[in-house]
Design goal:
single chain, alpha+beta, 5-stranded mixed beta sheet, 3-stranded mixed beta sheet, 2 helices, elongated, binds dinuclear copper ion
Length: 190
């Protein structure tokens, strides 16, 4: 009876061990790289916090300051800048319908009264996360007139999927005629 060559079994075992070691080394390298990235970004953010962080007290939001109800909606500043102020709360946006001019830079300023919400305007790049305690702001220009839907895109509770507003983009001259009276403009009847 032929004996199994003990050396052959040994060889394949040694081969397997070597392969295992190689892979353990590669996995170790990947983990070390990820940990290094975490440490680096952690230190970087601690050393250089993001600029332009604006805070707001969600408990007094409705009583005083920038986000009281008469301030919500679109306005044209003395410098001609178009600003939309809005708040999000479970489960609606205020105002429910936002009116903006086309082909004009529009600055959005928004915050939340309760939990984290967010919104995106149709298929445009207008997209923000609304975090209680912070003011989210960005400037964008809408080129297409018409109505866009603006859903909440951060899960905020059982009514999340029913939380949305509308944005109406109208020609700039039409918008300026409405805003000329110096008041807040929105497409919600008051
Ligand atoms: Cu608000 Cu989801």
């Amino acid at each position: 009876m032929a004996t199994t060559p003990a050396g052959g079994a040994h060889d394949s075992h040694a081969l397997a061990v070597a392969a295992e070691r190689r892979w353990a080394f590669v996995v170790g390298l990947i983990i070390a790289a990820l940990v290094a990235m975490m440490v680096f970004t952690g230190l970087q953010w601690a050393a250089m916090p993001p600029s332009r962080v604006e805070t707001v007290d969600p408990r007094t939001l409705h009583i005083a300051g920038e986000f009281i109800e008469p301030n919500l909606g679109t306005s044209v500043g003395a410098d001609g800048k178009v600003i939309v102020r809005l708040i999000a709360q479970q489960y609606s946006f205020q105002p429910q319908c936002i009116l903006v001019p086309a082909d004009t830079p529009v600055t959005f300023r928004g915050t939340s009264t309760d939990v984290i919400h967010g919104f995106v305007v149709g298929r445009t790049n207008a997209n923000a996360m609304l975090i209680p305690g912070f003011v989210a702001t960005f400037t964008t220009t809408f080129h297409k007139t018409g109505e866009e839907v603006m859903p909440c895109h951060e899960y905020c509770g059982t009514g999340h999927e029913a939380m949305w507003a509308r944005v109406q983009v109208i020609p700039p001259n039409e918008f300026l005629a409405k805003a000329a009276e110096g008041k807040r403009v929105s497409c919600v009847s008051r």
